[in-house]
From TrEMBL:
EC number assigned by the record: 2.7.1.6
Domain Galactokinase N-terminal, residue spans: 12-59
Residues noted as binding ATP in the record, renumbered to the chain: 69, 127-133
Domain GHMP kinase N-terminal stretches: 96-184
Protein's UniProt name: Galactokinase
One GO term (biological process): galactose metabolic process
Known role: Catalyzes the transfer of the gamma-phosphate of ATP to D-galactose to form alpha-D-galactose-1-phosphate (Gal-1-P).
Gene responsible for this protein: galK
Length: 391
């Protein structure tokens, strides 16, 4: 599924009028289960996927950094390598994702003292909730690590990606997206504990089942959505529970303790938010058990339950996402389906038998068009390794 290298080199040549040197790829991510838990120090189980972001790099002799996105097709964004401030011009704000990585690597003392040109092209569906931002951040991390021989660890790069979004861009996200992209492994899901950053790989190499991405084709923007509101609500509920409980995050709760102390919250909305976090962590634990014995039907039921919790307790689904998921649930060979990512738009996934993939696309696509009024898109993906140089 990788792009032809020559097409990428030709794109670089057309924009910068000189040859590109090295080609890189950084995957996007999906999340099997464990949604809106990472910023609550909980469990998640993401995978790196074969759709992602490509970069073509060439060094410069001066201190000028040049960034160009083939997807945006705007002007070249340029700034001195020492510039550490976010870009404010609307048409260039996409460049804050790679620029933030550069700024924070330099802030941490890594030697990046020469300019360069970087041509970027992504084949992740726009606004799909497949973490194009983390893909770009980890692409930049890989480029800088390789080209400047930086002794930076993979986990530190993931942390700097989260810092870029939190502090450089103002999105209060957890670390799951960057961690999934950076630590991706072929045919493996990553069971991540966001509190400790401990992780395990769980096999997704089942001969009978595959994952299909179902995109709503409705723009998804975490920064402009209620994502930050959900983070704030989680923190409000935590503070209320800490009146009597010695917990540091909502993920410290088990369901029995939550039921015994929900009176401290005494707010219907906040109680629903906490209930999702507590039950989603438990579903993720159960999912690991199902995967250990290759029980895809059980895994699918947990995925279904995750969507119900996200829709009713966390209230981050939408008519478009519900249509995709509810239709998929009715079809033969579909073990499970749910929305993924921040919510409100973006994408869902379906865990489906390989011989039923085309039927899924046809039936879900037809129902979606009839109910929503425009087409959904479907993507077959492989689970792949993390960022790497291609040549």
């Amino acid at each position: 599924m990788l792009m032809e290298k020559q097409a990428l080199l030709d794109g670089f040549q057309k924009v910068f009028h000189r040859p590109g040197k090295d080609i890189f790829f950084s995957p996007g991510r999906i999340n099997l289960i464990g949604e809106h838990t990472d910023y609550n120090d909980g469990l998640s189980m993401p995978c790196a996927i074969s759709l992602g972001t490509y970069g073509v790099f060439a060094p410069r002799d001066d201190d000028k950094v040049e960034l160009y996105s083939e997807n945006i097709k705007g002007e070249i964004v340029s700034f001195p390598v020492t510039d550490r401030y976010p870009i404010v011009k609307d048409s260039e704000q996409w460049a804050n994702y790679p620029k933030g990585m550069l700024a924070y690597l330099r802030h941490e003392g890594y030697l990046i003292d020469k300019g360069f040109s970087l041509y970027i092209y992504g084949n992740l569906p726009y606004g799909s909730g497949l973490s194009s931002s983390a893909s770009i951040e980890m692409l930049m991390g890989e480029v800088l690590k390789d080209e400047f021989n930086l002794p930076v660890s993979n986990i530190e790069l993931a942390k700097l990606g989260q810092r870029t979004e939190n502090d450089f861009l103002g999105l209060r996200s957890g670390i799951m997206d960057q961690f999934a992209v950076r630590m991706g492994k072929k045919d493996q899901a990553v069971l991540l504990n966001s509190a400790t950053l401990s992780y395990q790989y769980k096999s997704m190499d089942d001969p009978n089942y595959t994952l299909v991405i179902m995109s709503t084709n409705k723009k998804h923007s975490l920064a402009n959505s209620a994502y930050n509101e959900r983070v704030k609500q989680s923190q409000e509920a935590l503070h209320l529970l800490q009146q009597k409980l010695g917990i540091t995050s909502l993920s410290d709760l088990d369901f029995k303790t939550f039921e015994a102390y929900d009176y401290l919250i005494n707010d219907a909305v906040l109680i629903r938010r906490v209930r999702h976090v507590v039950t989603e962590n438990e579903r993720t634990r159960e999912a690991t058990k199902a995967m250990q014995v290759n029980d895809m039907e059980r895994l699918g039921r947990l995925i279904n339950a995750s969507h119900v919790s996200l829709a009713y307790d966390y209230e981050v689904s939408s008519c478009e996402l519900d249509t995709l998921v509810n239709t998929a649930w009715q079809l033969p060979g579909v073990a499970g389906a749910r929305m993924i990512g921040g919510g409100f738009a973006g994408s869902a996934i379906a865990l489906v038998k390989k011989d039923q993939v085309e039927n899924l696309k046809q039936q879900v696509g037809e129902e979606y068009r009839n109910k929503v009024g425009y087409d959904a898109s479907f993507f077959d993906v492989e689970i792949v390794d993390g960022p790497r140089q291609l040549n």
